[in-house]
Every structure is written in structure tokens, then in C-alpha cells.
Design goal:
The complex is a heterodimer of chains A (255) and B (329). The model of chain A has no long low-confidence stretch (mean pLDDT 89). Chain A has 255 residues and is an all-alpha fold. Chain A has twelve helices and no strands. In chain A, helix 2 (19-52) runs antiparallel to helix 3. With 329 residues, chain B is an alpha/beta fold. In chain B, helix 3 crosses helix 4 (106-119) and helix 4 (106-119) packs across helix 5. Chain B is elongated. Chain B is 34% helix and 28% strand. Mean pLDDT of chain B is 84; it is low at 314-329. The chains are: A mainly alpha (255), B alpha/beta (329). The interface between A and B is medium-sized, with 26 and 29 residues.
């Protein structure tokens, strides 16, 4: 696994010397900051009003700020993630550096894990920015920390599963834009599948809804650790990485 | 060191490499020669385990490329046609990265990087982004990455393509210096490169090996006899047929061909009998007949002509069966 770590480090290096990492960090910092600010502002206004109306009961920071912000970010992340994974293999194929990797004494699995891990760490860095916003909630209020921690874990798992699928998409093309576009489309489909149960509750729509990545996130932000959701995300990650491995192998036979 | 038997690589629509066999001895520099699209890169990609063969067998240092790719990869340094470099990395960082991938222990890494950098004359650009380097430098970074783990076998795909003449000479010198420690296969479509660098040559055309031999042997075998071009100025009395007749009578001459005539200057092509050289006698005969000998020059086939003949009209050289460059590894 030393090789996977070597490849992962090189990928992180490439993220940060290219504009993509900085652009995403900036966008994410701005969006995360704005959402947290907006939710907090509403919270402050609402709690002032309720106090003036004489309804003294304390409002929950978790329910009014943490859950909506994390849910919003979970959806936004769906559309930022393809940008993180688009270059992983597409760029190597375009530059011809894929020949270096596949003719070095390194297993395909190490290449795939290294690349995927670098994208997950990069996504983790985005979440750290969001967490910086949340520290204000802990300074000026006292939200329950468990749903916050689980919410971030959920975000990370959700991101890691989409990243594994987008890593696979990146092996299919030499063109980063194509990889990103297909990634977007896939993310969008996985997102709207969650609406399937909204208008009917047949077995098919139940299955579709289960496949939707977003529907598994909600329990995390509510502070519920459901093994069903963890299994879902882990199997999604495995499925994506498995497809990547197959695709990389078929690349050799077709190349 | 390298053994290839009946190697075939078929793509969906065409056969890139068709049942080729050859062997390369330890320490040799072998030129892999052929027109564009002949199957050179495909063969190299099979040898480097980049892609598996459709049929046939290839072993490097005793390991099969299909069954033991990890062992083969450890022993091979490969420079693809475009150097596999990351433009956003600094040269030194890049070489360290490749060194790690190739399994060099962390403790030796710095030392190996500075050694190969010295060797490939890129020590002065360690802190530069590879994307900012000139093509010649980038090619040498590519070479450095291929030799960083001190592999037994070096496979270089058109190492001088796209370089300027000075860089070409430098790169060839570098490759020659690497010989001895490494067994080298280099592909090219530039014939002078093979003459300048390689001891042995494998000529490949349309996916088939058409000749395998040493460079001198090949040019010699193409024309086993000594052939000269002769230019004679006659006194004006003797005609073309007189001179032809006189030359045919010279002992040791097997064939005389008339080539050209301008004023009284006649040009002939004279072939000696196998194993002999009729040149001194031809010269004497011309002078004794009272004509002037203007020019006599040897007509040995250059590798260019050999190459064209082999790749263009394979059927006309039945004497050149594909054969192993050397013996067993």
C-alpha cells in the first residue's frame, strides 16, 4: 500500500498546483459560509420573535441550523464532486502518463485506491472549511455535537461514494470536460431518484428511492447512525472502485 | 535477456503485430526499425506489460510478461514515445515519485535521483516545472525516469523524435553510454540512428519481422559482391559497346551494366565475382586502353536502401529469413 500512498500524495500535489483545488475551496467556503450565515440569521430572528410573543421555549440549533445547512451542502456537493474526480484518469490518459503507472511495478488496485483516496481527502478539506463555520455555533450556542459529527461523517461517506463512481467515469474518456459532464448527469439522477416515492409507493419506486444517494444522508444529519445507510455507502464505494478496476483492465486489452 | 515467440497482437479491426519472433542478448543495443505503423510501439507495449498479447509468448529476464508482469516491470525501464511526465511537477519531485513507484527504498531515493540527473544532464533543472522545460530536456527527464531503478532492460520508443540535431546527438551519446549495464531496445524510423547507435537491428514491416541481423552484416548480405560505379572518358574513337566489351574481359568481373553517357564520359556499374574484387584490374584495363579513369567508387548499399528493399519488396530477398539476433539469453 506504500504505492497507493505515493500516488495519493502526487495527486494531492497536482490538485494544489492546479487552480481546481483553490477554485473549489473558494466556492465551498463562500457557499458554506453563506448557508450557515443565512440559517443562523433566520434562527436569531425567529428566536427573538418567539421570545417577544412570549413563547419561551428554547429553539433547537440542531433542528434549525445544522440539519438544513448540512442537507443543502449534501445536495450542492453532488455537483462539485464531479469536478474533483474528472481529472483522475482522464488527464493521465491524455498526457500519456498512464503508461508510466501501468508499466511500473504497481498493482491496479493501488493506483485506483491512491487516486480515489486523494479525491476523498480533497473533499475532506472542503468539509473542514464548512466545519470552520460550524465552530461559531459551538462558540455562541450549545448544539448537540453528535448529530453534527454524524452529519459530517454522512457527508464524507456520501462524497466518497460519488467520488468512486466519478473515478470510474474518468477512466472512460481522455477528456476531463466529458468526465465532469457525465459525472454531473449521474449525480443528478442519483439525486432525483429520491423523489420516486413522492408520488407513488410501488416496489420499483421504493428500490429507486433506496438507490438515491441523498435519501441515505438524512438520518446522519438527524444524529441517527443507521447501519443500513453505512452499508449502502460502503457498497456504493466498493461498486464504483470495482467498476474502475474493470475499466482499467479493459483499457489494457483494448489500448 | 528478451525472448519473443510467435507474438501476435490483434485489434478489433486489424492485426498490429503478426506472429513475430526474435531474441535479444544481454548487453546488446538493438534497433527496432520500421516505417510508421509497422507495429514497433505495439511490440514494445507488450514487452513492458502495458498490454497483453493476443497470442504468443514474450519473456523478459526469464519472466513471462503475461504471467509474471510484476517481476518484468521491476526489471524494465520504459520511455514511451511521449515522455510520461507531469507538466505541473518539478523535475526532482517527479523523479522521486517515479523512484518510489519503482520500489527504490526511501533511503536511497535522493542519491539515485541525483545520480540519474547527473547522468542525463538534467541536474540544473531539478527545481524547474517540467512543463516549462524544452523538448530536449523533457526527453532526458523521460530517460532519467526510465533508468532510475537501474533496470536490466531499457525500452525506448523513438527516443530522438522531435528533437533538434544537437539534442539528437546528445541523446544518442547518452544511450550509447547506457549500453553495457543495460540491454537496450530502441525503436526508430530513422535509419542513420540505427547505424549510429545499435549493434543489431530488427526490421519490422506491416507487423512482421523482415530481417534480423547486425548492421554490417545486413548491408553486406544485401549485396554479397563488391560493386563499383565507374566513370570513363574515352578518346572519342571507342564507343560505348567497345568499352563494355573490354570491361567484361577483365578477370574477376561478373557483370557490367551501362548506366549513362554524356559527351565521351561513360558510366558503368561493375559487379565482381563473389569473394573477389576486380577493382585493380578494371583500373589497369581502362588506363591501358588509353582512356581516362575519371571516377571509381564503391556501391555498397546503405541501410536506407536495404530498408526500402526489405519493407517494399519482401519477396525479392528470400535469402534473408528472420533469425535470432543472438543465442539464448
Amino acid at each position: 500500500m506504500r504505492n497507493a500512498w505515493t500516488i495519493c500524495r502526487r495527486e494531492l500535489y497536482s490538485y494544489f498546483v492546479s487552480p481546481i483545488a483553490w477554485v473549489l475551496l473558494t466556492v465551498f467556503a463562500f457557499l458554506g459560509g453563506y448557508f450557515t450565515y443565512a440559517a443562523s440569521a433566520f434562527f436569531v430572528k425567529d428566536s427573538l420573535e418567539s421570545q417577544m410573543m412570549g413563547q419561551g421555549f428554547p429553539m433547537s440549533i440542531n433542528d434549525r441550523i445544522v440539519v438544513p445547512v448540512l442537507s443543502n451542502i449534501a445536495v450542492i456537493a453532488l455537483f462539485l464532486i464531479p469536478l474533483l474526480a474528472m481529472r483522475l484518469f482522464a488527464e493521465e490518459k491524455r498526457q500519456g502518463t498512464i503508461e508510466l503507472l501501468t508499466t511500473s511495478p504497481v498493482h491496479d488496485l493501488e493506483i485506483i485506491l491512491g487516486k480515489w483516496l486523494s479525491a476523498v481527502l480533497m473533499y475532506g478539506a472542503l468539509l473542514v472549511l464548512l466545519f470552520a463555520d460550524f465552530t461559531f455555533l459551538f462558540i455562541y450556542g450549545s448544539p448537540d455535537w453528535k448529530p453534527v459529527a454524524l452529519g459530517f461523517l454522512g457527508l464524507l461517506l456520501q462524497g466518497a461514494s460519488i467520488l468512486s463512481l466519478c473515478t470510474f467515469i474518468s477512466t472512460l474518456t481522455k477528456n476531463q470536460i466529458v468526465a465532469a459532464a457525465v459525472g454531473f448527469a449521474l449525480s443528478l439522477i442519483l439525486f432525483v431518484l429520491s423523489w420516486a416515492t413522492a408520488f407513488e409507493s410501488s416496489a420499483v419506486s421504493q428500490v429507486l428511492s433506496y438507490i438515491s444517494i441523498v435519501s441515505h444522508f438524512d438520518s446522519f444529519s438527524r444524529g441517527v447512525l443507521d447501519s443500513k445507510d453505512i452499508v449502502f455507502y460502503l457498497s456504493m464505494i466498493f461498486f464504483g472502485l470495482f467498476l474502475t478496476a474493470r475499466s482499467l483492465e479493459s483499457l489494457r486489452w483494448r489500448a | 535477456m528478451i525472448q519473443v515467440e510467435g507474438l501476435t497482437k490483434r485489434y478489433a479491426r486489424h492485426v498490429a503485430v503478426d506472429n513475430i519472433s526474435f531474441a535479444v542478448d544481454k548487453g546488446d543495443i538493438v534497433g527496432f526499425l520500421g516505417p510508421n505503423g509497422a507495429g514497433k510501439t505495439t511490440t514494445m507495449r507488450v514487452l513492458t506489460c502495458f498490454m497483453p498479447p493476443t497470442a504468443g509468448k514474450a519473456t523478459v529476464a526469464g519472466y513471462d510478461v503475461f504471467e509474471k508482469p510484476m517481476e518484468v516491470k521491476k526489471r524494465i525501464g520504459y520511455l514511451p514515445e511521449t515522455p510520461p511526465v507531469y507538466p505541473e511537477m518539478e523535475t526532482g519531485d517527479y523523479l522521486e515519485f517515479v523512484g518510489r513507484l519503482k520500489g527504490i527504498p526511501t533511503g536511497d531515493l535522493k542519491r539515485r535521483v541525483s545520480e540519474v540527473s547527473e547522468r542525463c544532464a538534467i541536474a540544473d533543472v531539478q527545481k524547474k516545472l517540467i512543463g516549462k522545460l524544452s523538448k530536449g530536456y523533457r526527453q532526458r527527464v523521460g530517460l532519467a525516469q526510465a533508468i532510475i531503478h537501474n533496470p536490466d532492460v531499457l525500452i525506448l520508443d523513438e527516443p530522438t523524435s522531435g528533437l533538434d540535431p544537437k539534442q539528437i546527438i546528445e541523446t544518442r551519446e547518452l544511450i550509447k553510454n547506457l549500453a553495457g549495464e543495460h540491454t537496450i531496445i530502441l525503436s526508430t524510423h530513422i535509419l542513420s540512428e540505427v547505424e549510429a547507435v545499435c549493434q543489431k537491428v530488427i526490421i519490422i514491416s506491416k507487423g512482421k519481422v523482415v530481417a534480423t541481423d547486425t548492421v554490417e552484416h545486413l548491408t553486406h548480405r544485401m549485396r554479397g559482391t563488391d560493386t563499383v560505379a565507374l566513370e570513363v572518358e574515352t578518346d572519342g574513337v571507342a564507343g560505348q559497346s567497345d568499352v563494355l566489351q573490354r570491361l567484361e574481359q577483365v578477370p574477376g568481373v561478373s557483370k557490367v551494366l551501362f548506366r549513362n553517357a554524356a559527351d565521351h564520359k561513360l558510366t558503368f556499374e561493375i559487379e565482381s565475382l563473389p569473394g573477389q574484387s576486380a577493382r585493380p584490374d578494371v583500373a589497369r584495363a581502362v588506363v591501358n586502353s588509353g582512356w581516362s579513369l575519371l571516377e571509381m567508387r564503391s556501391l555498397n548499399y546503405s541501410l536506407e536502401e536495404v530498408f526500402l528493399q526489405l519493407t517494399g519488396a519482401e519477396a525479392s530477398v528470400p535469402a534473408l529469413e528472420p533469425q535470432a539476433v543472438g543465442g539464448e539469453q
